[in-house]
Amino acid sequence: MRRHLCLTLSALCVAASASAASAQIPAAEFAARRDSLAARLGNGVVIAFGGRTPVTDFGPFYQLPAFHYLTNFDEADAAFVMVIRDGRAASTLFLSPIDPRTAFYYGRRPDSATVASTLGVGARSFASLGGVADSLAATGLPIYTLADFGDADFAKQDSLTRGQMFVRSLIERHPGLVVKDAHPVVDQLRARKSSAEIALLKRAAEISSVGHRAVLSMPEPRHEYEMKAVLEYNFMRLGGARPSYGSIVGGGKNSTQLHYMLDRDAVRPGDVVVMDAATEYDGYAADITRTVPVSGKFTPDQRVIYQLVRDAQAAAERNSKPGMTAAAATDSSIAVRAAGLAKMGLIEGIDATFDPPWKVNCVATPSGCRQSMLWMIHGISHGLGLAVHDPAQFYTGDRSFKEGDAFTIEPGIYISTAALAALPDTPKNRAFIAHVRSNVERYNNIGVRIEDDYVITAKGLERISSAPREIDEIEAIMRNRPPHQ
């Protein structure tokens, strides 16, 4: 089977071998990152904590993105201290030894000499960290912290980590200590991807695209998990380390739930299935979504919505060039979809408003109160990198796209009578519901999202995900699939 698959995908298999050998990030680049951080901070002490040993046996340890970005150290229970004076830094990793018996189960950890020779930083025992931190706090240098939350999207909920408790204790012992958040500065560095990082992102996107293409050629599925299995099998087969995030495979009504991750329901002819799934390769995350018909052919109503989303994606692509603003890309995508929704009778008009079921200031953010936003409630873009939601240069400053940006474009439309049922009972909403109900029932449970990955290079915008996305292309591939087994 392996030989047959490599013959079928010979070009990609050759690329896999080449990428694995050449796309790794050199040690000098990690050193340059630390130097860049030191130059920006000038004087201070950076204290960062890595991830903890997993407390389940459901997978291996994966390092926290910011910690990996600066250290390239991917063992658990470590800390990193960088002392900066006049823009010059001295870096030390603090290592936790592993119990000799436990090492037989989970492997041995590198010692101080190995760390110094391979990573180019000093190393000490984790037990000495408290004393070192106390000594540095007494110098009067400000402390810059990198919190050890598991995911930046949930940082506010993840407030009792080992690192954050350590810093709180340090502050209690040293009243008047100046403590600052280093994440904004590190995020600025992470936002601009190097050529080595872009190579890894491209490989992740290539592998992920193969997984999505494979779904189109599989026997007609009967359950969401069959499609998920084909996706993730191909990710792993081609060298992906793990899914970049929980794979989303939702058919029928589940296609309208943005982050549906149970992936256990039946799928039926007449349904569309939203597949938001991709792999992580050497730490770098792809993020791809495709929407496909279970039967192999879109219904007329599904085609209308699908093409509207695809047109919205194309509009955003045209406005995602170097020097253009992210707002222009978003606005163009919204305008295309709003016009289409009005034509389909799913909103009263392009600028028609409603009383949303979420908190929003309609004066400060009028777009949040437009009826169209009920059917396309999420943004269309986010950065990609060591995290699936990674920093990007267009998040700050003039908010324009720049060389080194890596990001998604992912418009969607999700039609469901359940959305109407969730609206507050107000006169405005009653009028809105009365106007659109019949058309909502017509398009009920059709969710469509199309998401691709992009980088900005010296040549301009480049799409790096190649999974089929045009209606005719998708249907042509699915016509030739074998019957259900």
Overall mean confidence score, pLDDT: 93
CATH superfamily of the largest domain: Creatinase/methionine aminopeptidase superfamily
Strand content: 15-25%
User: In CATH terms, what is the fold-level topology of the largest domain?
Assistant: Creatine Amidinohydrolase
Fraction of residues in helix:
25-40%
Round the Cα radius of gyration to an integer and report it: 25 Å
The CATH architecture classification of the largest domain is Alpha-Beta Complex
Q: What count of structural domains?
A: 2
Which stretches of 5+ consecutive residues score pLDDT under 50?
A: 1-23
Q: What does the largest sheet look like?
A: 6 strands, mixed
| Structural classification | alpha+beta
Q: Tell me the number of strands.
A: 17
* CATH class categorisation of the largest domain: Alpha Beta
Please give the order of strands in the largest beta sheet.
Answer: 4-3-2-1-5-6
- Shape descriptor reads globular
